[in-house]
Design brief:
Elements: E1 13-15, E2 19-21, E3 31-33, E4 46-53, H1 64-78, E5 85-88, E6 94-97, E7 103-110, H2 128-131, E8 147-153, E9 159-166, H3 172-186, E10 234-241, H4 243-250, H5 262-278, E11 285-293, E12 311-312, E13 315-319, H6 320-325, H7 328-340, H8 344-357, E14 367-371, E15 389-392, E16 398-404, E17 410-419, H9 420-433, H10 437-453
Parallel strand pairs: 7-8, 11-14, 14-16
Antiparallel strand pairs: 1-7, 2-7, 3-6, 4-9, 4-15, 5-6, 8-9, 10-17, 11-12, 11-13, 16-17
Helix pairs in contact: 1-3, 5-7, 5-9
Length: 454
Amino acid sequence: MAQQTSTPLTFTVRRHPTELIVPAKPTPRELKPLSDIDDQGGIRFNITQFHIYPGNPKMGYKNPASVIREALAKTLVFYYPFAGRLKEGPGKKLTVDCSAQGVLFIEAEADVTLKQFGVTLQPPFPCSEELLYDVPGSNGIVDSPMLLMQVTRLLCGGFIVAIRHNHNMCDVHGYIQFMTALTEMAQGASTPSTLPVWQRELLCARDPPRVTYPHREFDEVPVTDDMIIPFDDMVHKSFFFGPTEISAIRRFVPTHLKKCTTFDVVTACIWRCHTIALQPNPEDDMRLLVIVNARSKFKTPLPVGYYGNVICSPAAVSKARDLCNKPLGHALELVRKAKSQVSEEYVRSVADLMAIRGRPTSAFGSYIVSDLTRTSLLELDFGWGNAVYAGPDNPLAGFYTRYINHKGESIIVVPVQLSRYAMKRFAEELDRMLAPDDKGDLVIQEHLATLSRL
Protein backbone atom coordinates (compact mmCIF):
# COMPACT_ATOMS: atom_id res chain seq x y z
CA MET A 1 0.00 0.00 0.00
CA ALA A 2 1.46 3.34 -1.01
CA GLN A 3 -0.53 5.75 1.12
CA GLN A 4 -1.40 5.50 4.78
CA THR A 5 -4.60 7.10 6.02
CA SER A 6 -6.18 6.97 9.46
CA THR A 7 -9.22 8.27 11.27
CA PRO A 8 -8.65 11.55 13.09
CA LEU A 9 -7.36 11.13 16.64
CA THR A 10 -7.92 13.69 19.35
CA PHE A 11 -6.65 13.63 22.90
CA THR A 12 -5.93 15.95 25.79
CA VAL A 13 -2.46 16.83 27.07
CA ARG A 14 -1.79 18.20 30.54
CA ARG A 15 1.45 20.16 30.58
CA HIS A 16 3.53 21.05 33.61
CA PRO A 17 5.05 24.56 33.70
CA THR A 18 7.85 25.13 31.16
CA GLU A 19 11.34 24.89 32.68
CA LEU A 20 14.75 26.21 31.67
CA ILE A 21 17.34 23.44 31.99
CA VAL A 22 20.88 24.73 32.45
CA PRO A 23 24.14 22.74 32.48
CA ALA A 24 24.58 20.74 35.70
CA LYS A 25 28.06 22.25 36.19
CA PRO A 26 29.69 25.60 35.31
CA THR A 27 30.61 25.89 31.60
CA PRO A 28 32.89 28.28 29.68
CA ARG A 29 31.50 31.73 28.84
CA GLU A 30 32.72 32.41 25.32
CA LEU A 31 31.73 33.28 21.75
CA LYS A 32 31.84 30.45 19.20
CA PRO A 33 31.30 31.33 15.50
CA LEU A 34 29.45 28.81 13.36
CA SER A 35 31.00 27.53 10.14
CA ASP A 36 29.89 28.81 6.74
CA ILE A 37 28.28 25.42 6.13
CA ASP A 38 26.30 25.85 9.37
CA ASP A 39 25.44 29.33 8.11
CA GLN A 40 23.69 28.23 4.91
CA GLY A 41 20.60 30.35 4.39
CA GLY A 42 18.58 27.27 3.48
CA ILE A 43 18.94 25.71 6.95
CA ARG A 44 18.19 28.79 9.03
CA PHE A 45 15.18 27.23 10.72
CA ASN A 46 14.18 25.03 13.66
CA ILE A 47 13.41 21.39 12.94
CA THR A 48 11.11 19.13 14.97
CA GLN A 49 11.79 15.46 15.68
CA PHE A 50 9.47 12.91 17.31
CA HIS A 51 10.74 9.84 19.19
CA ILE A 52 7.96 7.44 20.18
CA TYR A 53 8.56 4.69 22.78
CA PRO A 54 6.37 1.84 24.07
CA GLY A 55 6.16 1.08 27.76
CA ASN A 56 8.63 -1.31 29.37
CA PRO A 57 7.62 -3.21 32.55
CA LYS A 58 11.30 -3.59 33.49
CA MET A 59 11.48 0.17 34.11
CA GLY A 60 8.86 -0.12 36.85
CA TYR A 61 7.43 3.22 37.93
CA LYS A 62 10.32 5.31 36.63
CA ASN A 63 9.18 8.60 35.16
CA PRO A 64 10.87 9.08 31.74
CA ALA A 65 10.45 12.86 32.02
CA SER A 66 12.41 12.94 35.30
CA VAL A 67 15.12 10.67 33.89
CA ILE A 68 15.51 12.74 30.72
CA ARG A 69 15.38 16.09 32.55
CA GLU A 70 18.30 15.10 34.79
CA ALA A 71 20.23 13.59 31.87
CA LEU A 72 19.72 16.76 29.82
CA ALA A 73 21.37 18.95 32.45
CA LYS A 74 24.36 16.58 32.54
CA THR A 75 24.61 16.41 28.74
CA LEU A 76 24.65 20.21 28.47
CA VAL A 77 27.89 20.28 30.45
CA PHE A 78 29.55 18.73 27.38
CA TYR A 79 27.31 20.33 24.73
CA TYR A 80 27.15 23.70 26.46
CA PRO A 81 26.81 25.75 23.22
CA PHE A 82 23.23 24.41 22.98
CA ALA A 83 22.47 26.21 26.25
CA GLY A 84 23.56 29.54 24.75
CA ARG A 85 21.96 31.90 22.23
CA LEU A 86 22.79 32.72 18.61
CA LYS A 87 23.86 36.26 17.73
CA GLU A 88 23.96 37.70 14.22
CA GLY A 89 26.90 39.80 13.07
CA PRO A 90 27.99 41.48 9.83
CA GLY A 91 27.15 39.54 6.65
CA LYS A 92 24.49 37.57 8.58
CA LYS A 93 27.28 35.64 10.29
CA LEU A 94 25.98 33.60 13.25
CA THR A 95 27.94 33.17 16.47
CA VAL A 96 26.98 31.26 19.61
CA ASP A 97 27.06 33.27 22.81
CA CYS A 98 27.75 30.47 25.31
CA SER A 99 25.75 32.13 28.08
CA ALA A 100 24.38 28.97 29.76
CA GLN A 101 20.89 30.47 29.67
CA GLY A 102 19.52 26.99 29.15
CA VAL A 103 17.12 25.02 26.97
CA LEU A 104 13.36 24.67 27.35
CA PHE A 105 11.85 21.51 28.87
CA ILE A 106 8.22 20.49 29.35
CA GLU A 107 6.84 17.47 31.18
CA ALA A 108 3.35 16.38 30.12
CA GLU A 109 0.75 13.59 30.30
CA ALA A 110 -1.74 12.60 27.58
CA ASP A 111 -4.97 10.62 27.93
CA VAL A 112 -4.18 8.35 25.01
CA THR A 113 -2.41 5.05 24.42
CA LEU A 114 0.18 4.27 21.79
CA LYS A 115 -2.23 1.79 20.20
CA GLN A 116 -4.71 4.58 19.51
CA PHE A 117 -2.21 6.27 17.20
CA GLY A 118 -2.83 3.43 14.74
CA VAL A 119 -1.02 0.40 13.41
CA THR A 120 1.49 2.49 11.51
CA LEU A 121 3.09 5.61 12.92
CA GLN A 122 3.93 8.32 10.43
CA PRO A 123 3.95 12.08 10.07
CA PRO A 124 1.99 14.26 10.31
CA PHE A 125 1.22 13.28 13.89
CA PRO A 126 -2.21 14.10 15.30
CA CYS A 127 -2.24 16.98 17.76
CA SER A 128 1.46 17.62 17.16
CA GLU A 129 1.07 21.10 18.63
CA GLU A 130 0.01 19.38 21.88
CA LEU A 131 2.95 16.96 21.80
CA LEU A 132 5.33 19.91 21.41
CA TYR A 133 4.00 23.13 22.84
CA ASP A 134 5.28 26.20 20.99
CA VAL A 135 6.40 28.25 23.97
CA PRO A 136 5.67 31.91 23.10
CA GLY A 137 8.79 33.73 21.89
CA SER A 138 10.85 30.53 21.63
CA ASN A 139 10.81 29.74 17.91
CA GLY A 140 13.25 32.33 16.60
CA ILE A 141 16.78 31.75 15.38
CA VAL A 142 18.61 34.68 16.97
CA ASP A 143 18.37 35.26 20.74
CA SER A 144 16.13 32.23 21.24
CA PRO A 145 16.60 28.90 23.04
CA MET A 146 18.25 26.44 20.66
CA LEU A 147 16.42 23.42 21.96
CA LEU A 148 12.85 22.81 23.12
CA MET A 149 11.95 19.37 24.48
CA GLN A 150 8.63 17.93 25.65
CA VAL A 151 8.33 14.48 27.21
CA THR A 152 4.71 13.30 27.14
CA ARG A 153 3.74 10.19 29.08
CA LEU A 154 0.92 8.03 27.68
CA LEU A 155 -1.72 5.96 29.48
CA CYS A 156 -0.12 2.71 28.31
CA GLY A 157 3.25 3.46 29.90
CA GLY A 158 4.79 4.60 26.64
CA PHE A 159 6.00 8.11 26.04
CA ILE A 160 6.81 10.57 23.26
CA VAL A 161 9.91 12.75 23.22
CA ALA A 162 9.35 15.72 20.91
CA ILE A 163 12.34 17.97 20.23
CA ARG A 164 12.70 21.19 18.28
CA HIS A 165 16.30 22.15 17.65
CA ASN A 166 18.15 24.83 15.73
CA HIS A 167 19.33 23.37 12.40
CA ASN A 168 22.26 25.82 12.19
CA MET A 169 23.81 24.09 15.20
CA CYS A 170 23.88 20.61 13.70
CA ASP A 171 22.61 18.32 10.97
CA VAL A 172 20.91 14.99 11.70
CA HIS A 173 24.24 13.25 12.32
CA GLY A 174 25.26 15.89 14.85
CA TYR A 175 21.79 15.67 16.36
CA ILE A 176 22.12 11.89 16.76
CA GLN A 177 25.51 12.38 18.40
CA PHE A 178 23.94 14.79 20.90
CA MET A 179 20.96 12.49 21.47
CA THR A 180 23.23 9.46 21.92
CA ALA A 181 25.03 11.35 24.68
CA LEU A 182 21.65 12.18 26.23
CA THR A 183 20.52 8.54 26.19
CA GLU A 184 23.85 7.43 27.67
CA MET A 185 23.47 9.93 30.51
CA ALA A 186 19.90 8.72 31.03
CA GLN A 187 21.25 5.20 31.51
CA GLY A 188 23.81 6.28 34.09
CA ALA A 189 26.95 7.27 32.16
CA SER A 190 29.02 10.15 33.52
CA THR A 191 30.70 10.98 30.20
CA PRO A 192 29.50 10.57 26.60
CA SER A 193 31.13 7.73 24.68
CA THR A 194 31.97 10.28 21.96
CA LEU A 195 33.16 13.64 23.25
CA PRO A 196 31.90 16.64 21.25
CA VAL A 197 34.30 18.59 19.04
CA TRP A 198 33.53 22.16 17.93
CA GLN A 199 36.24 23.27 15.45
CA ARG A 200 33.70 24.93 13.12
CA GLU A 201 36.58 26.87 11.51
CA LEU A 202 37.31 23.69 9.52
CA LEU A 203 34.33 24.45 7.28
CA CYS A 204 34.59 28.21 7.02
CA ALA A 205 35.03 30.03 3.71
CA ARG A 206 38.50 30.16 2.20
CA ASP A 207 40.53 33.35 1.88
CA PRO A 208 39.94 34.45 -0.77
CA PRO A 209 36.66 32.58 -1.37
CA ARG A 210 36.22 30.92 -4.76
CA VAL A 211 33.07 29.25 -6.09
CA THR A 212 34.05 26.30 -8.29
CA TYR A 213 30.64 24.73 -9.09
CA PRO A 214 27.46 26.10 -10.74
CA HIS A 215 25.32 25.41 -7.60
CA ARG A 216 21.92 25.35 -9.28
CA GLU A 217 20.45 24.75 -5.82
CA PHE A 218 20.85 28.49 -5.20
CA ASP A 219 19.37 29.72 -8.48
CA GLU A 220 17.45 32.97 -8.13
CA VAL A 221 13.88 32.09 -9.14
CA PRO A 222 11.37 34.92 -9.70
CA VAL A 223 8.37 34.33 -7.43
CA THR A 224 4.91 34.98 -8.85
CA ASP A 225 1.57 34.97 -7.04
CA ASP A 226 0.47 31.72 -8.66
CA MET A 227 3.49 29.93 -7.15
CA ILE A 228 2.35 30.63 -3.58
CA ILE A 229 -0.20 28.14 -2.24
CA PRO A 230 -2.28 29.17 0.81
CA PHE A 231 -1.32 27.16 3.88
CA ASP A 232 -4.95 26.13 4.46
CA ASP A 233 -4.98 24.40 1.07
CA MET A 234 -1.92 22.26 1.83
CA VAL A 235 -2.18 18.55 2.60
CA HIS A 236 0.56 16.60 4.38
CA LYS A 237 0.55 12.78 3.98
CA SER A 238 2.97 9.88 4.23
CA PHE A 239 3.55 7.18 1.62
CA PHE A 240 5.08 3.78 2.33
CA PHE A 241 7.58 1.88 0.20
CA GLY A 242 8.20 -1.71 1.24
CA PRO A 243 9.73 -4.58 -0.74
CA THR A 244 6.60 -4.91 -2.93
CA GLU A 245 6.45 -1.22 -3.87
CA ILE A 246 10.18 -0.96 -4.50
CA SER A 247 10.11 -4.05 -6.71
CA ALA A 248 7.23 -2.53 -8.68
CA ILE A 249 9.17 0.70 -9.31
CA ARG A 250 12.33 -1.17 -10.32
CA ARG A 251 10.43 -2.58 -13.31
CA PHE A 252 10.87 0.86 -14.89
CA VAL A 253 14.62 1.07 -14.26
CA PRO A 254 16.72 0.66 -17.44
CA THR A 255 19.23 -2.18 -17.55
CA HIS A 256 22.34 -0.02 -17.17
CA LEU A 257 20.93 1.43 -13.93
CA LYS A 258 19.77 -1.81 -12.28
CA LYS A 259 22.40 -1.52 -9.54
CA CYS A 260 21.26 1.92 -8.39
CA THR A 261 20.27 2.36 -4.76
CA THR A 262 16.75 2.07 -3.39
CA PHE A 263 16.92 5.74 -2.36
CA ASP A 264 17.70 6.75 -5.94
CA VAL A 265 14.83 4.68 -7.35
CA VAL A 266 12.25 5.93 -4.85
CA THR A 267 13.44 9.53 -5.24
CA ALA A 268 13.23 9.43 -9.04
CA CYS A 269 9.71 8.02 -8.77
CA ILE A 270 8.60 10.61 -6.19
CA TRP A 271 10.10 13.51 -8.16
CA ARG A 272 8.36 12.44 -11.34
CA CYS A 273 4.97 11.95 -9.62
CA HIS A 274 5.40 15.22 -7.74
CA THR A 275 6.03 17.10 -10.98
CA ILE A 276 3.04 15.53 -12.73
CA ALA A 277 0.87 16.45 -9.74
CA LEU A 278 1.90 20.12 -9.90
CA GLN A 279 0.93 20.43 -13.60
CA PRO A 280 3.67 23.01 -14.28
CA ASN A 281 4.40 24.80 -17.53
CA PRO A 282 6.24 22.24 -19.71
CA GLU A 283 9.16 24.67 -20.11
CA ASP A 284 9.59 25.25 -16.37
CA ASP A 285 12.81 24.09 -14.71
CA MET A 286 12.01 21.60 -11.95
CA ARG A 287 14.59 21.31 -9.18
CA LEU A 288 15.13 18.38 -6.87
CA LEU A 289 17.57 19.10 -4.02
CA VAL A 290 19.15 16.00 -2.48
CA ILE A 291 20.56 16.62 1.00
CA VAL A 292 23.89 14.78 1.11
CA ASN A 293 25.97 13.98 4.17
CA ALA A 294 29.49 14.86 2.99
CA ARG A 295 31.47 13.54 5.98
CA SER A 296 32.97 10.67 3.99
CA LYS A 297 34.12 13.00 1.18
CA PHE A 298 37.01 14.66 3.04
CA LYS A 299 40.56 13.52 2.28
CA THR A 300 41.56 14.46 5.81
CA PRO A 301 38.63 13.19 7.88
CA LEU A 302 36.86 15.63 10.17
CA PRO A 303 37.58 14.98 13.85
CA VAL A 304 35.58 12.24 15.57
CA GLY A 305 32.96 14.05 17.60
CA TYR A 306 32.48 16.96 15.19
CA TYR A 307 28.76 17.70 15.42
CA GLY A 308 28.32 20.67 13.09
CA ASN A 309 26.58 20.63 9.73
CA VAL A 310 28.45 18.75 7.00
CA ILE A 311 25.66 18.74 4.45
CA CYS A 312 25.00 20.25 1.05
CA SER A 313 22.06 20.01 -1.32
CA PRO A 314 23.10 19.48 -4.96
CA ALA A 315 20.34 20.06 -7.48
CA ALA A 316 18.95 17.79 -10.15
CA VAL A 317 17.33 20.04 -12.78
CA SER A 318 15.03 19.05 -15.63
CA LYS A 319 12.41 20.65 -17.85
CA ALA A 320 8.97 19.70 -16.62
CA ARG A 321 8.02 18.17 -19.97
CA ASP A 322 10.97 15.78 -19.78
CA LEU A 323 10.21 14.66 -16.25
CA CYS A 324 6.56 14.04 -17.10
CA ASN A 325 7.02 12.40 -20.50
CA LYS A 326 10.35 10.60 -20.50
CA PRO A 327 10.85 7.20 -18.84
CA LEU A 328 11.85 6.98 -15.19
CA GLY A 329 15.49 6.50 -16.21
CA HIS A 330 15.67 10.21 -17.10
CA ALA A 331 14.90 11.30 -13.53
CA LEU A 332 17.06 8.50 -12.12
CA GLU A 333 20.12 9.59 -14.11
CA LEU A 334 19.71 13.18 -12.88
CA VAL A 335 19.37 12.12 -9.23
CA ARG A 336 22.54 10.02 -9.45
CA LYS A 337 24.44 12.80 -11.25
CA ALA A 338 23.47 15.38 -8.61
CA LYS A 339 24.66 13.17 -5.75
CA SER A 340 27.90 12.28 -7.54
CA GLN A 341 28.94 15.95 -7.61
CA VAL A 342 29.48 16.07 -3.86
CA SER A 343 33.14 16.10 -2.86
CA GLU A 344 35.28 18.01 -0.37
CA GLU A 345 35.75 20.71 -3.01
CA TYR A 346 31.98 20.93 -3.54
CA VAL A 347 31.45 21.54 0.19
CA ARG A 348 34.15 24.22 0.26
CA SER A 349 32.61 25.84 -2.81
CA VAL A 350 29.26 26.05 -0.96
CA ALA A 351 30.97 27.64 2.05
CA ASP A 352 32.64 30.21 -0.22
CA LEU A 353 29.36 30.94 -2.01
CA MET A 354 27.69 31.66 1.35
CA ALA A 355 30.34 34.24 2.16
CA ILE A 356 30.27 35.85 -1.30
CA ARG A 357 26.50 35.98 -1.87
CA GLY A 358 25.31 36.81 1.64
CA ARG A 359 23.99 33.35 2.57
CA PRO A 360 21.25 32.79 -0.03
CA THR A 361 18.41 30.37 0.61
CA SER A 362 17.61 27.44 -1.67
CA ALA A 363 15.95 28.12 -5.01
CA PHE A 364 12.25 28.85 -4.47
CA GLY A 365 9.95 25.97 -5.36
CA SER A 366 12.61 23.26 -5.11
CA TYR A 367 11.54 19.80 -3.98
CA ILE A 368 13.90 18.71 -1.19
CA VAL A 369 14.57 15.13 -0.06
CA SER A 370 16.81 13.61 2.60
CA ASP A 371 17.56 9.96 3.36
CA LEU A 372 17.42 9.23 7.10
CA THR A 373 16.71 5.52 6.72
CA ARG A 374 20.29 4.51 7.47
CA THR A 375 20.66 6.60 10.61
CA SER A 376 20.33 5.23 14.14
CA LEU A 377 17.32 7.35 15.12
CA LEU A 378 15.24 4.28 16.05
CA GLU A 379 18.04 2.89 18.24
CA LEU A 380 18.25 5.92 20.58
CA ASP A 381 17.43 4.23 23.90
CA PHE A 382 16.71 6.10 27.15
CA GLY A 383 16.45 2.78 29.00
CA TRP A 384 13.00 1.75 27.80
CA GLY A 385 14.27 0.16 24.57
CA ASN A 386 14.24 1.23 20.93
CA ALA A 387 11.72 3.67 19.55
CA VAL A 388 8.83 2.45 17.41
CA TYR A 389 9.10 5.63 15.35
CA ALA A 390 11.75 8.33 15.16
CA GLY A 391 12.16 11.15 12.69
CA PRO A 392 11.21 14.67 11.69
CA ASP A 393 7.68 15.99 11.38
CA ASN A 394 8.53 18.80 9.00
CA PRO A 395 6.73 19.60 5.74
CA LEU A 396 9.67 21.64 4.39
CA ALA A 397 11.35 18.53 3.01
CA GLY A 398 10.72 14.87 2.27
CA PHE A 399 12.67 13.23 5.10
CA TYR A 400 12.74 9.49 4.39
CA THR A 401 12.55 7.49 7.63
CA ARG A 402 12.30 3.81 8.59
CA TYR A 403 9.35 1.86 9.91
CA ILE A 404 9.53 -1.81 10.91
CA ASN A 405 6.23 -3.53 10.10
CA HIS A 406 4.68 -6.59 11.77
CA LYS A 407 6.60 -8.86 9.37
CA GLY A 408 9.90 -7.35 10.48
CA GLU A 409 10.34 -5.67 7.10
CA SER A 410 12.02 -2.27 6.93
CA ILE A 411 9.60 0.14 5.27
CA ILE A 412 10.58 3.55 3.89
CA VAL A 413 8.22 6.32 5.02
CA VAL A 414 8.11 9.30 2.65
CA PRO A 415 6.14 12.40 3.75
CA VAL A 416 4.74 14.59 0.97
CA GLN A 417 3.10 18.01 1.15
CA LEU A 418 1.02 19.34 -1.75
CA SER A 419 -2.17 21.26 -2.38
CA ARG A 420 -5.34 19.22 -1.99
CA TYR A 421 -5.94 18.62 -5.70
CA ALA A 422 -2.24 18.09 -6.46
CA MET A 423 -2.09 15.45 -3.71
CA LYS A 424 -4.92 13.55 -5.40
CA ARG A 425 -3.05 13.62 -8.72
CA PHE A 426 0.18 12.56 -6.97
CA ALA A 427 -1.48 9.54 -5.36
CA GLU A 428 -3.14 8.52 -8.64
CA GLU A 429 0.13 8.69 -10.58
CA LEU A 430 2.00 6.77 -7.89
CA ASP A 431 -0.72 4.10 -7.83
CA ARG A 432 -0.29 3.66 -11.59
CA MET A 433 3.43 3.03 -11.15
CA LEU A 434 2.82 0.61 -8.28
CA ALA A 435 0.05 -1.30 -10.07
CA PRO A 436 0.43 -5.11 -10.03
CA ASP A 437 1.97 -6.77 -13.07
CA ASP A 438 -1.29 -7.34 -14.96
CA LYS A 439 -2.06 -3.61 -14.85
CA GLY A 440 1.48 -2.35 -14.54
CA ASP A 441 2.45 -3.91 -17.86
CA LEU A 442 0.36 -1.28 -19.61
CA VAL A 443 2.27 1.46 -17.84
CA ILE A 444 5.60 -0.15 -18.79
CA GLN A 445 4.49 -0.40 -22.41
CA GLU A 446 3.62 3.30 -22.38
CA HIS A 447 7.12 4.04 -21.04
CA LEU A 448 8.75 1.93 -23.75
CA ALA A 449 6.64 3.56 -26.44
CA THR A 450 7.72 6.98 -25.15
CA LEU A 451 11.37 5.89 -25.17
CA SER A 452 11.10 4.75 -28.80
CA ARG A 453 9.89 8.19 -29.84
CA LEU A 454 12.83 10.05 -28.25
